[in-house]
Every structure is written in C-alpha cells, then in structure tokens.
Design a protein that fits this description.
Blueprint: H1 2-21, E1 27-34, H2 38-57, E2 61-66, E3 72-77, H3 82-89, H4 93-96, E4 100-107, H5 117-120
Antiparallel strand pairs: 1-3, 1-4, 2-3
Length: 121
C-alpha cells in the first residue's frame, strides 16, 4: 500500500514538473476584502468595474466577481509576473481609495478543464 501511494505521489510530482517545464506558468488568485461599508464600496463600484474591464481587454484577468456574502471579491489572473500584477492592481479604485485589502495567492494550475487550457498552456 505504501509503495502504491509513493508511486502515485511521484507520478503526480512528475506530471506537475512536466507541465511546468512545458510552459504551464503560475497564475494568481486575488482575494479582495472590503475595509469599509457597502455604501462606500458601491460609490466606487462603477469605477472598479471599468478598471476590471480594462484588465479583460488587456488580457490581465480571466474571471472576477463578488464573494457571497458580499465581503469582497475574487479575481483570477493569468499574468505570470507578480510584480506586474501588483503594479496593475495599484490602479484599482478600491486600492486608490483605500477601500479594500488585496491578498495575492500564486499557484501552478496542474489540473484544469480542457476548455480552460488556453489560459494555462
């Protein structure tokens, strides 16, 4: 049993390494947490959505939306450079008006749906 488990882990590691070496890059999940009331957030929501739209037009972002319950939001980015992403996020009105905290989580997409492949390969 232990040997089977070790082989599975080694296979998963080798698969991950192969994918990484074949051009699969890091991606980022951005978790946004509001620091102020929804009334104040809503005053800047239009500008925030314009910021997101520019990000989509420039291929910075894949998907975004509010958390449920509405305590913040999530953005997934296919950018591969964290410093570039941080620079882009500084222009978000939620950042410029100090309305939210941003946590950037870097990850390597190893498993994904076939329709999502163009974002990770």
């Amino acid at each position: 049993m232990f040997l089977k488990l070790a082989k599975l882990k080694l296979h998963a590691y080798n698969t991950s390494l192969k994918l990484l070496l074949n051009g699969v890059a890091y991606m980022f999940l951005i978790s946004i947490t509001y620091k102020t009331s929804l009334v104040e957030i809503d005053q800047h929501l239009g500008a925030h959505r314009e910021f997101l739209e520019k990000g989509y037009q420039n291929n910075y972002f894949i998907v975004s939306g509010p958390k449920n319950p509405r305590t913040g939001g999530i953005i997934i980015s296919q950018l591969t450079n964290r410093q570039e992403l941080e620079k882009i996020l500084k222009d978000d009105p939620f950042v410029t008006h100090d309305l939210a905290d941003y946590e950037i989580v870097e990850f390597i997409p190893v498993k994904y749906h076939k329709d999502f492949a163009e974002f990770v390969t």
